Amino acid sequence: MSNLTFSGGRRLTSALLAFSLAAYVNPTPTSAQTAPAVAAVRPDSNPLLASWAGPYGGFPAFDKVQVAHFKPALEAAMAENLKEIQAIASNAQAPTFENTIAALERAGHTLDQVQTVYGVWAGTMSSPEVQAVQREMAPRMAAFGDQITQNEPLFKRIEAVYNSPDKKKLTPEQQRLTFVYYNNFVRAGAKLDAKAKTRLSEINQQLAGLFTRFSQNVLADETDSVMVLKTPADLAGLPTSLRDDAANTATARKISAVGVITNTRSSIEPFLTYSDQRKLREKAWRMFYNRGDNGGAHDNNALITEILQLRAERAKLLGYATHAHLRLDNTMAKTPEKAMALMEEVWAPAVARVKEEVADMQALAKKEGANIKIEPWDYRYYSEKVRKARYDLDQNEVKQYLQLDKMREGMFWVAGELFNFTFSPVTDVPVYHPDVKVWEVKDKTSGKHVGLWYFDPYARPGKRSGAWMNAYRKQERMNGEVNTIVSNNSNFVKGKDGAPTLISWTDATTLFHEFGHALHGLSSNVTYPTLSGTSVVRDYVEFPSQVLENWLPTPQVLQRFAVHYQTGKPIPQALVDRIEKASTFNQGFETTEFLASALIDMKLHLAGDQKIDADKFERETLAQLGMPSEIVMRHRTPQFSHVFSSDGYSAGYYSYLWSVVLASDAYGAFTEAGGPYDKAVGQRLTKYIFSVGNTVDPADAYRSFRGRDPKIDALMRERGFPLKGAKASPPATKKPATKKS
């Protein structure tokens, strides 16, 4: 699954968006050191304030960036944007789409570029100095966003355009954009009285500071905590590739040991899968799953309590029962009840499957003479043993055929077949780290430039964990064609001395997933940047990325790109068959660990203004749900950056499940036609899903592609769960009549 997607955006159409642009990417600090003061830089000498120059429509001058540039650049760009906003708000002419809505779209160009580079450093190049800037600027940026959304003359102009009878003369995209601006401003408190607006701004500033502290605490635990493997016995059970990775990490960190396991998912999960040392598995598991929950300076529990209370107060100010109702009002689901209904429908069969999986593992452990009860640190280890025994499938054997570079080439090939793109490496574009590489994307038929794709694949100190997509620049054509710039970011362990980086099947799936986000941005074909690319509602944004995962296991990809790292021979068909037979294996675990996080997220935000003890709430709610003791949440509450490092996925983590229902159902359109590379279905996918951004209602867009509403059936079959019937889910959703664009 992807982490957060971030788009550097100058369209500050809501206070919520304004500060989350900074907070989205800010789980990034590396330690609790006090940062030295950042030297002042004059705005006229600040490279961040210069327009992007060069070929390809220009690009970020990453090679000229210094941390000292960020604060003055943000200050100068915000001041410039406020002047632009004031000019729009004080325009003496009657409000029109062009002098109000389109003018807002053109405003903030400098700020957009500054925030983009600032976000890249916050997400991938953090340092104590960067963290200090974040802590200072996050509340100020929240206040800045409120200055825009609480500008009464500006809102009155937006409202006038929205309510004007002339609106029907606008193009459908212009009508949609007008609706989006109006709706975002209302949801950000534009209709509140002065007292309520003041309090709302105070809340937003407090939350921005808390989000920054939360994410910095998580990364501090990730960066500062490692598990040292002291003797060869500590390596027992680990495959050669994992031993090499651990040794390389020890060398890179200058630790005298046979290996080091870092506190990131990409290191911990393979160790839990293969290590024969149960005590070390438990140690690694506790290190990872207790991030943000260890007491002391980096503990997040008190912050969570504050965040939840402030969100509840803000929701009431805005006229919503809870934060969950506020967040879902602007989604496909529309209400928490609909999202809960979907999760509950899947929860019961998932938990039932976990009980079967645990029984199989317990029986195997007993057979091997291990007198144990399966614990969370045993699940992956014994699950892998059961997989090997039942399907003769060793994930480490599969890994020998999954070279990172070859998988990247496979993604490019799929993009060529489905979207008619070509990718060519370029060296005339500056990057922020030597690991980052850049490709130019063109239309395969016409040779027309489409955009740039940056790839930052490897883990390093100061880079947040996980995998995600960024949009450095959005596609638009308000005043001529503007091409997009996108990036994908991962945390693989770099091979030693140029050796190929081998990745797991899960990692390869995630790679395709994140590339799906990039293709969503690259395929964009809209006029206005606010509606461009991945700028869609929360429970729809993961749909294009989820659907692309389906192309990894296709024979066309595996036979050409899944080749052995030593022999170069393609993956044997017999091994592919075993992968296919095992495709529903362990789905109880995969589904339950996700749903536990999604349900806790939703229930926390449905609790209203209750004062929540996060650890207690998590423990008691999971017990009420019947959470199997052998599994924990994929993201425990004190480290749940999706939910507490910004408003991004708060009361919205369910959206991954919502989107995978769409993705499973959508892929069915290919299987029902000519197969995964059916040209006609592929063209419909581009036309109605990948290219339209937020120019149309997502439910309408899906129906245009599929000819009907989505059904849950395909998802249940994929995971091997029993079907209750042909019940449509997610349910068909339509905007209320009062919110039609």
Key attributes of the depicted protein:
globular; 741 residues; disordered N terminus; six-stranded mixed sheet; two-stranded antiparallel ribbon; alpha/beta; single chain; 6% strand; disordered C terminus; 29 helices
Detailed description of the structure:
The protein starts with 5 loop residues before the first strand and ends in a 23-residue tail after the last helix. The chain has helices at 15-23, 70-89, 97-106, 109-124, 128-149, 152-163, 172-187, 194-224, 240-252, 265-274, 278-289, 301-317, 323-328, 336-367, 376-391, 395-399, 404-419, 505-522, 538-541, 543-548, 555-561, 573-581, 587-606, 614-625, 641-644, 655-671, 679-690, 698-706, 713-718, and strands at 6-7, 226-229, 259-262, 421-426, 437-443, 449-458, 468-473, 484-492. The chain has 741 residues and is an alpha/beta fold. Strand 5 (437-443) and strand 6 (449-458) form a beta hairpin. The strands form two sheets. A six-stranded mixed beta sheet has the order 1-7-8-6-5-4, with helices on both faces. Strands 2-3 form a two-stranded antiparallel ribbon. It is built from 29 helices and eight strands. Keywords: Hydrolase, Metal-binding, Metalloprotease, Protease, Signal, Zinc. It comes from Hymenobacter volaticus.
